[in-house]
Specification:
6 strands; mainly alpha; 66% helix; Growth Hormone, Chain: A; two-stranded parallel sheet; 3 domains
Length: 580
């Protein structure tokens, strides 16, 4: 019996609910089966998103700005729904069921999109000639398209917040060998999902343009269904960890309790504040955000419903629970100042793709699909990750004695590169517009190479490599242990809000710069607009935001408890930092 206990994982169970046997559950194979879901999800979502704007403009005959907003709203909703997926996984379904259910939903959504692009009645008739006014898609046709897109968004959001967490559940952190394997798993996580994106922007986009969108979307649905079967086949080998409940509930409990007791005076000694955690697991009281400490003051009626031994959690919270909420609150300024990066990212899969459709994309007899230009974006990510891992980290360790840049430093580099990317995009667009003005409407393809756009893709792509890994590391390592899933969702909301802000800016700029006679910066035909001014505006906003980020980063470091600073110093010199 003792031997069996030694081979079991203390905080995990098997599919029958018994303690998980290390020799029969977890490890590399189950983790890889989970990773397949994420790769196929990225293949489907990005395969649709990077080339969707050309479908909306060319087939559905929508204006340029409206098409860009539909794409950014779709992606924004996908990432925002990660909060829903995390809540359901933590409170009701668990990670396994959440992944299985929402992966099937995404499969249905991509299948529906394949059908909608195939049936002639679900999109308007093509324009016969250049002088004819193209008829836009009807409300019914757009309704079917929206239903399919947001079914995909629901599936993406539902499973995305649980995949990385369920993957790490397959490794025992208390076992040194498995802990090292988990670090390696994280190391390759971003790499493999980037490969999924690379396949999407090359193979799938080519199939969409040259074979047919219905075929490409059908492949997305088929691969996602196969991924679900692979995922389900590992049911008996997975390790399952019991959820401790949704951290969102804990946050609301602390806030409501503090509001109820806002008029109560603090006791003379902090030792009188309520604490029910053992010394080994408790977090000691800090002076920051003292208004939340009101939730820990013992008052009449705190025990009336649950008996003398268990206080009502909506009336009285422990110091540890309050300190966990404080830890999350400290993350918010950094969270807010990283949103703008994803606003600049949104331009790479909307307006930059539209730019590419007007330019010379020929290499000999081969014509590059406009959506495939984002391959430079993905290649930049892969090159940057490899260079950071093989060159920058060893040099930095030799010079500074640390494994690499801190998460805050990586995020700052990402913000700088994205600002430079928008500046480069503005210069490239100024050149493209000058060519468009010189040739007029005599040709649909401008005599200017599409490779002029490569610098903006490369700069923003390199920026993503730094900011994505920096954000992921920051939100996971700096959040309380019981809030890792929620903190991952918090990180993903920066992507969602970045896309929504992009849609908001496009709408505002179009309204402010347009008149009854002119369409302004963001014209229906980008050759008639001033997209370079819009890019310049984003570069200026990114520069201002970077200034605020630096202030928030300095504030965050100066307001961290001394114990946390010591722990961060240890992490920066351990394999835990190497995962990024």
């Amino acid at each position: 019996m003792e031997g069996k206990i030694g081979w079991s994982v203390t905080d995990a169970v098997n599919y029958k609910g018994f303690p998980a046997d290390k020799s029969k559950t977890g490890g590399w194979i189950p983790a890889a089966q989970i990773l397949v879901i994420e790769i196929c999800e990225r293949l489907s979502t990005m395969g649709i998103a990077v080339n969707l704007v050309t479908y909306l403009v060319g087939t559905m005959h929508l204006p340029s700005a409206s098409s860009a907003n539909i794409v950014t709203d779709f992606l924004g909703t996908s990432f925002l729904l990660c909060l829903l997926g995390g809540f359901l996984a933590d409170s009701f379904l668990g990670r396994y069921k959440t992944i299985a259910i929402f992966a099937l939903i995404q499969t249905l959504g991509t299948g529906g999109l394949a059908i909608s692009t195939k049936l002639p009645k679900l999109h308007p008739s093509p324009c016969n000639n250049t002088t004819e006014s193209c008829k836009q898609a009807s409300g019914f046709q757009m309704g079917v398209l929206y239903a399919c897109l947001y079914l995909i968004a629901l599936g993406t959001g539902g499973l995305k917040s649980s995949v990385s967490g369920f993957g790490t559940d397959q490794f025992d952190e208390k076992d040194d060998k498995e802990k090292a394997q988990m670090v390696y798993f994280f190391n390759r996580f971003v790499f493999f999902i980037s490969l999924g994106t690379l396949t999407a922007v090359t193979v799938l986009v080519y199939i969409q343009d040259e074979v047919g969108r219905s075929w490409a979307y059908g492949i997305c649905s088929g691969t996602m269904f196969i991924a679900v079967l692979i995922f389900l086949s590992g049911t008996k080998r997975y390790r399952y960890k019991k959820s401790s409940g949704s951290p969102m509930v804990q946050i609301f409990q602390v806030i409501l309790s503090a509001i109820r007791k806002r008029k109560i005076n603090f006791p003379s000694n902090v030792s009188l504040l309520h604490e029910d955690q053992s010394e080994a697991t408790r977090i000691h009281h800090t002076e920051q955000f003292r208004f939340l400490d009101k939730a820990t003051i013992v008052a009449d009626g705190d025990y009336e419903k649950n008996g003398p031994s268990a206080p009502n959690p909506w009336k009285l919270c422990s110091v540890t629970r309050v300190e966990e909420v404080k830890m999350v609150t400290r993350l918010l300024p950094i969270w807010a100042t990283t949103i703008i990066f994803w606003t600049t990212y949104a331009q790479m899969i909307t307006f930059s793709v539209e730019q590419a459709t007007t330019m010379d994309r020929s290499i000999g007899n081969f014509k590059i699909p406009a959506g495939s230009l984002t391959v430079f974006f993905v290649v930049a990510i892969l090159i940057t990750l490899a260079a950071y891992d093989r060159i920058i980290m060893p040099l930095w360790k030799k010079w500074k004695g640390k494994q690499g840049f801190t998460n805050l430093q990586r995020m700052s580099i990402g913000l700088i590169l994205s600002t430079m990317g928008m500046a480069a995009a503005s210069l490239a667009e100024t050149k493209r517009l000058s060519v468009a003005k010189s040739v007029g409407d005599t040709t649909s393809t401008l005599p200017i190479s599409v490779f002029l756009l490569v610098p903006q893709f490369f700069l923003v792509g390199s920026g993503e490599a730094f900011i994505y890994t920096g954000q992921l590391d920051f939100f996971i390592t700096q959040s309380p242990k019981g809030m890792k899933t929620m903190s991952t969702g918090l990180f993903l909301t920066t992507l969602a809000l970045g896309f929504f802000i992009s849609s908001f800016l496009v709408s505002v700029v179009k309204k402010v710069t347009g008149t009854s006679e002119e369409q302004g910066w963001l014209a229906d035909n980008i050759n008639d607009g001033r997209l370079d001014c819009f890019y310049r505006l984003l570069a200026i906003l990114s520069s201002i935001n970077f200034g605020f980020y630096l202030i928030c980063a300095i504030w965050y470091k100066s307001n961290k408890p001394q114990k946390d600073l010591q722990m961060e110093s240890v992490v920066n010199g351990s394999p835990a930092e190497e995962k990024c």
